[in-house]
Write a structure and sequence with these properties.
The complex is a heterodimer of chains A (about 210) and B (about 280).
Chain A (H helix, E strand, L loop, with lengths): L7 H26 L6 H26 L3 H28 L14 H9 L10 H9 L2 H29 L3 H34 L1
Helix pairs in contact in A: 2-3, 2-6, 5-6, 6-7
Chain B lengths: L1 H9 L5 H7 L4 H4 L7 H28 L7 E2 L7 H9 L50 E4 L6 H9 L3 E5 L6 H11 L5 E5 L7 E5 L2 E5 L6 H9 L21 H5 L7 H19 L1
Parallel strand pairs in B: 2-4, 3-4
Antiparallel strand pairs in B: 1-6, 3-5, 5-6
Helix pairs in contact in B: 7-10
Classes of the chains: A mainly alpha (about 210), B alpha/beta (about 280).
Chain lengths: ~210, ~280
């Protein structure tokens, strides 16, 4: 053993190899860890996929039962786009190795949001109640178009609130980019739905 | 050349006669035994220990991330999860018949067979944790059912990545049921129903996995929900939904009803809401 100390080259090589391996180990952890289970990024992705799920359910009924072609087209757009986003967010969560579901929704977004959640009996911003969804599912034709627009505008306002909250909390590139896109797309859709809702209402008024 | 130089340096300060005396000696004899280079030893050992420590820590962190809660019964056998077993089947390493529990890879809609006689599938486990099932899935958007539901619909929800919590109404009182519904109510991809004579207070099912406990406050219940809801390696149909399924109970099914009217749906939803608020209160 003592001979080892007389061979500095061997010693340096062994140490260098160990340090290199340690470097890889640290890199491995940091490359595979990124957002933690209780991070705003993971919380946002988990809650937003649930939030999107209700938008898809609403839009599916409008696509099936509504009569206004433009409103149905908006519904079709929401079903396809938000379903794709749900898949994207689940892929993030699986890649990050975190839970896909949490018993504490909105905890990532701060006390104010948690308080609002408790006030509404566990509903995330803009989410329709079970009663509202049940009522909406009984409607067809123009009545469905109108309630769809009303529920979805509220739903989008809540979704934008969540996306803007995560934008304040994250510098994760993928999450920030997706949240920014959600804000822009949903703001645009709110404007469109408000316009079409006015048109449908005034058409009915004229009848 | 080298010995001569060494000699001259060692005897540099000495007299000429000493120098002459030493001239005949060979190199090794004059080598001074060096003290152990402790500084060097400590430095390199320290670096080595730190490096090995980091490697072990990294391996633990990455390993720990993927660990399931302890005590869960896994029915995939040596294949551990759905991803691995379906890969092995695909590669021809194993056939369905050779699996200890072939139902972990059986996903046929029994009601798609024209010869289906209307009887629901039966299962090895009670309650079941996978296998052939009915074409409709049970709504599992954090839904709390106050009456038993049809196994074949519930198993379809497990295929979609949901966790099904069942309790034995003879072993769980109302307060305890409220504690349990507090964990499920509103939590997407989970659902709960009574399961008479399951023989254990609480049973949790996801596709290919099950955990049973007689303690409604067992912290493993939350761990199970956290780990298995939408767990990509332990579900049989990726990214499928929990919405727009049926809310049928076994009583409805026995009455010959396969679909509910809108009014019945509304009534049921209201009933479930009432149950939920009771659960939270």
């Amino acid at each position: 053993m003592s001979r080892l100390w007389q061979r500095p080259a061997v010693l340096v090589a062994v140490t260098a190899a160990l340090m290199l391996a340690a470097g890889f180990a640290v890199g491995w952890v940091s490359a595979t860890s990124t957002p933690a289970n209780d991070s705003p990024e993971a919380g946002f992705a988990r809650d937003m996929q649930t939030h999107h799920q209700q938008a898809v359910d609403m839009a599916m009924h409008e696509w099936k039962a509504g009569e206004d072609e433009t409103m149905r087209a908006i519904a079709y757009d929401i079903v396809t786009a938000q379903s794709a986003e749900i898949g994207m967010m689940r892929s993030w969560l699986r890649d990050w190795g975190v839970q896909l579901s949490s018993s504490e929704p909105m905890a990532w977004a701060g006390d104010e949001h948690v308080h609002d959640l408790e006030e509404t009996g566990g509903l995330m911003p803009g989410v329709a109640t079970a009663e509202q969804m049940a009522e909406f599912r009984t409607l067809t034709g123009a009545e469905a178009d109108i309630m769809f627009a009303e529920l979805m505008i509220r739903h989008h306002i809540g979704g934008i609130d969540m996306a803007e909250t995560v934008l304040d909390l994250t510098d994760h590139e993928d999450v920030a980019e997706a949240a920014q896109r959600m804000v822009i797309v949903q703001q645009g859709e709110i404007g469109n739905m408000e316009g079409h809702l006015d048109r449908i209402m005034s058409d009915r008024g004229e009848e | 050349m080298a010995p001569k130089k060494q000699n001259s340096s060692k005897s540099g300060k000495g007299s000429g006669s000493k120098s002459a005396k030493n001239a005949g000696r060979k190199g090794p004899a004059v080598q001074v035994r060096q003290p152990k280079p402790w500084g060097l030893i400590l430095t390199f050992s320290g670096v080595g220990v730190v490096a090995i420590g980091l490697i072990v820590a990294a391996a633990f962190v990455v390993w720990d991330r993927s660990q399931a809660p302890e005590g869960v019964t896994n029915f995939y056998g040596e294949y551990e999860n759905y991803s691995t077993v379906s890969e092995a089947l695909d590669d021809g390493e194993v056939t369905e018949e050779d699996l200890e529990h072939p139902w972990v890879v059986q996903q046929t809609h029994v009601d798609s067979d024209p010869a289906w006689d209307g009887t629901n599938p039966t299962y090895e486990l009670t309650p079941p944790a996978g296998g052939n099932h009915l074409g409709n899935w049970q709504n599992c958007e954090g839904t709390v059912y106050n009456a038993p539901i049809v196994d074949g619909n519930a198993v379809h929800s497990l295929e979609h990545g949901a966790v099904w919590l069942t309790y034995d109404p003879e072993l769980v009182d109302e307060d305890q049921a409220a504690t349990l519904s507090g964990k499920i109510s509103g939590r997407n991809y989970s659902f709960m129903s009574p399961y008479p004579s399951q023989g254990v207070a609480v049973s949790l099912q996801s596709w290919g996995n099950q955990y049973q406990t007689d303690d409604v406050d067992d912290p493993k219940i939350d761990e199970y929900l956290n780990h298995y809801i939408q767990n990509g390696d332990n579900l049989a149909e990726m990214n499928a939904t929990c919405g727009n399924g049926v809310s049928t109970t076994t009583a409805d099914a026995a009455g010959g009803e396969t679909e509910m009217s809108e009014e019945e749906m509304t009534a049921l939803l209201e009933e479930m809401e009432t149950a939920d608020s009771e659960g939270e209160g």
